Amino acid sequence: MVNFEAEITDNPLKNAFRGKATVHTHIPGQSYVGDEAIPVIKNQYRNSRQGTSLAYINIPFCETRCLYCLFYQNPLQPESSLHYTDLLIKELQLWSDLAAQNHEPIHAVYFGGGTPTALEPHDLYRLIKAVRTYLPLANDCEITLEGRIHHFPEEKMEAAFKAGVNRVSLGVQTFNTQVRQTMRRVDDRDSMIRSIEKLASFNQASIVCDLIYGFPYQDMAVWEDDVKTAISLPLDGVDCYQLNVFEKSPLGKFIANGKLPAGADKEERGEMFALSVDLLTKAQWRRLSNNHWCQTFRERNIYNRFGKSAADCLAFGSGAGGKLNGYSFMIERKYDEWSKKIEAGIKPIAFASAPGAYWHALRTISSEMELGRINMRSLSDVYSLPLEKLSQDVFDQWSQAGLITPVGDWMVQTIAGQFWHTTMAQLLVNVLGKRLTQTK
C-alpha cells in the first residue's frame, strides 16, 4: 500500500509532508545498457512522432563549476567549441533519414547544459543553423538558448539571434553578489542587470531568468529583493525554483563538513515560495505553471511545459536525455566515448528504458500537477481508465489537509499544494500505478 496521506496541520505550507520530492516522477520499465540500447531506440526512431514534440541539445562544458550543480560534465578547453560543434552537427546528421527525426513538426528546441553560451559565436551560429536544417521545426518553434551572463558578450548575443534563437533562459539564480560568489557564480549584481537590459534591447526574443530560493546566506530579505529585482527588469518570464542540495554535489559536501550553513529549512522555503507568489501576483505577472511566470505574451514556456509530459523529445549531444514513444534514453555522458562513436558514425546511446504500464496517462497526470490544477474526470474519459474513481480518496484527504480545493470537476491546488506539488505528483503516480495494475 502506498502511503499518500498528508499531515493534518494548521500550516500545510510548512508541515504537509516530512520531505519534499526532488526528482521528476518516474515510470519504470525494462532497461537496456550500452550497445544493446542503440537498436532499441533506433527502432523507435523508425516511427513518426505524434502531437507536441521537443528536441534537447546538450552542451557539456562550463568555464566554472557552481557549488550546487550536479550537471557539470567537462571544463571548457580552448579547442572545445570547434571540436564539439563539428561532432554535434555530425550527430544531427546520423539518423536524419529516420521518420522520428524528419517527419512531423518539432515545437520547441532547448539548448541546455552545461553552458551553451560557452560556445564561440561562429560555432553557436552554425550549430543553431544545423538544428534548423536537420530537424523539422514548426514555423512557430520555440528555440531556447540557456546560458549565463559570464562570457556572453554582445557579439554572441547577435550570433544567437541571427541564427534564429527566440528565447533566452538565464541562470541568474540570485542577484545578491555575496550569495552568487559564495556559490562560485562569477558576475556581480550590476553586471547581471546590465546584461539582461542589453539582451532585452535587441527585441528579438523572450528573455527569461531562473531564480532559486534556499541558498546559504539567502534569507527572506535577500529573496524578496531577488524577486523584486526580476520584476523591475525588462524580462518576459521568470522561474522560481527551490534549491535541491544533493549529497554528492560540492555544496552538499561543504554543508556536511561545516564549511557553509545549510540555508533555509523546509519551513522557511515554504514561506519563500509563498512570498514569490504574492509579489508576482501583485505585480500582475501571469502564471504559466507553479514555478513559471510571464510578464509579456512573448513568453510561452513550451519546452518546460511539455518536458515532463508524455511528449516525445529527441536528444543530441553528450549527456543529453530524450524520450520517444514512451522510451527514455540517454546519450553517452563520457565525452571521449561520445566523440569516438560519433566519428565512427554511431549514435552514442548509452542507456534506454522501455515504458511501464499506463506510462502515457501517468506522465500526463504528473505534468498536469505542475499547472496547479488537474481534472481527473476528463483524464478518465481521455484514457478510458477509472482514474477519477481510483484517486478520489487521495484528493479527499489532500483537500482535508488544505492542499486541494475542489472547483467543479477540477482539483485546484492551494498555495501549500503548489509548494508541495512535486511530492504530490510522485505520490499520485505511485498510487495510480499500483491500483491500475491491481484492477487489470
UniProtKB/TrEMBL annotation:
Cofactor: [4Fe-4S] cluster
Cellular component GO terms, alphabetical: cytoplasm
Keyword Cytoplasm belongs to the record: no
One record GO biological process: porphyrin-containing compound biosynthetic process
SUPFAM superfamilies the UniProt entry points to: Radical SAM enzymes
GO molecular function, one term: methyltransferase activity
Pfam families xref list: Radical_SAM (PF04055)
Alphabetically ordered keywords of this record: Iron, Iron-sulfur, Metal-binding, Methyltransferase, S-adenosyl-L-methionine, Transferase
Record's keyword annotation contains Iron-sulfur: yes
Domain called Radical SAM core: residue spans: 47-287
Annotated PROSITE patterns: RADICAL_SAM
Protein name: Heme anaerobic degradation radical SAM methyltransferase ChuW/HutW
Source organism phylogeny: Bacteria, Pseudomonadati, Pseudomonadota, Betaproteobacteria, Burkholderiales
